[in-house]
Automatic annotation (TrEMBL):
One GO CC term on file: microtubule
Organism (species): Paramecium sonneborni
GO biological process: microtubule-based process
Protein name per Swiss-Prot or TrEMBL: Dynein axonemal light chain 4
Subunit structure: Consists of at least two heavy chains and a number of intermediate and light chains.
Location(s), subcellular: Cytoplasm, Cytoskeleton, Cilium axoneme
Protein task: Force generating protein of respiratory cilia. Produces force towards the minus ends of microtubules. Dynein has ATPase activity.
Length: 108
């Protein structure tokens, strides 16, 4: 009985986390952060039917950011990775989407 309740709680938590973006680390201005976050969320959602195509999502996000803010943006999406990169000031964003999908965006 208790195991069934835990399963229901986990299913409810997954429903609540669907479409949620959690910002872990950034040095962007609030305006830029909002626009970049929207680009990431729309890039992932537009390339996730029926299964997420990480490569296409990265390409879509990179193209949107380069169109708006100029060239040399890098986009990394995945699970279970660490990073150590050199970036331009005020262009780094590390966030989680849907709880477990990590997104790193920066301008090199």
């Amino acid at each position: 009985m208790e195991e069934k309740k835990e399963t229901q709680d986990l299913a409810q938590l997954k429903k609540e986390m669907l479409g949620v973006a959690i910002i872990k680390d950034t040095d962007m201005s609030p305006d830029m952060l909002s626009e970049v976050q929207d680009s990431i969320v729309s890039g992932i959602e537009n390339n996730s039917s029926p299964v997420l195509s990480i490569e296409n999502a990265c390409k879509t996000i990179k193209e949107a950011l380069e169109k708006k803010y100029g060239p040399t943006w890098q986009v990394i999406i995945g699970e279970g990775y660490a990073y150590d990169v050199t970036v331009q000031n005020n262009t780094r964003l590390f966030m989680f989407y849907n709880g477990c999908l990590a997104c790193l965006v920066f301008k090199s």
